[in-house]
Automatic annotation (TrEMBL):
Residues 10-318 form the Enoyl reductase (ER) domain. This is Alcohol dehydrogenase zinc-binding domain protein. It comes from the Bacteria. CDD domains: MDR1. PANTHER family: ZINC-TYPE ALCOHOL DEHYDROGENASE-LIKE PROTEIN C16A3.02C (PTHR44013:SF1). InterPro entries: ADH-like_N (IPR013154), Chloroplast_QOR (IPR052733), ER (IPR020843), GroES-like_sf (IPR011032), NAD(P)-bd_dom_sf (IPR036291).
Amino acid sequence: MKAVMFDAYGPPDVLTHVDVPTPVPRADQVLIRVHATTVTSAEVGMRRGEPRWGRVIIGLRRPRRGVRVLGLEFAGDVTAVGPAVRRLRAGDRVFGFTSFGAGANAEYKCLSERASITTMPDNVAYAQAAAAVDGFTTAWHFLHDLAKVQPGQRVLVIGASGSIGTYAIQLAKYLGAVVHGVCSGRNAKLVESLGADRVFDYTVEDFTTSGERYSAIFDTVGRSSFARCRSVLAPRGCYLPTTGLVVNAMLTAGTALTTGPRVRTGMSVGKQAALDALRGLLGQDRLQVVIDRIYPMAEIVEAHRYVDEGHKVGNVVIDVVGDGRRNEP
């Protein structure tokens, strides 16, 4: 099968197209024909070997063998199942998250049926399904599970036009919150269309001087800090960062002992409950999937270059089998 592999950390050019054997599912696994995957900010960080502490997981000097094929989220068809599989069957259209093993930048991927995987709604295309997985489930983890956002609370999303932020705006609104977003002025209309009640253009406005107070501030892009946001948090508000895990884990422990604003962070890995919620919302057409560009897998290096620039809006999709159209402004 065709796959895209990297065996050294570095720029997009470390990615190479290779032919490797098609995997065979073990007893509890399903074999998935991948139709679509994505290039996320997390993956370009993995390709660069950043953050450095992450190399403890993916390889100190070079990526370990099990993660040399990137691809964290996917959509495709089950083509074969192991003898112990009960939940899925050949022919199912599925989408999900590969977790630390990555591997969706390939024509086929084996996963345990107990992994973060579920069937796709009939009304959803492969590109949409793949582009919804990590952003929505991460937003769910922080806003639903950690902050436990309630109706009427005020939520601020930093990086509101990104792959996590576009879902965070919609999810916070679904949970009944008053939602504000931070993004560039060129993306303000998009963020408003997703449900934001107010949008701060970070190039000309400072949300910390707005006079607003928030029950939760969700930083999806690592552009703020607890120290900067503390003054605009409610007395028991939550600061929710997706980056800076080591420092913010210490702040989480420290602020848990106080009566003031708290830091809540962590990694969204087990995604099954969030995937079930995502499947329901997609099936009801209650969630907008924002796709910036679609690249064929042959042009994945260019896709990485684009994501490296840091200006993508929503998601960048990789069409693995050629059943999606090339889409670029």
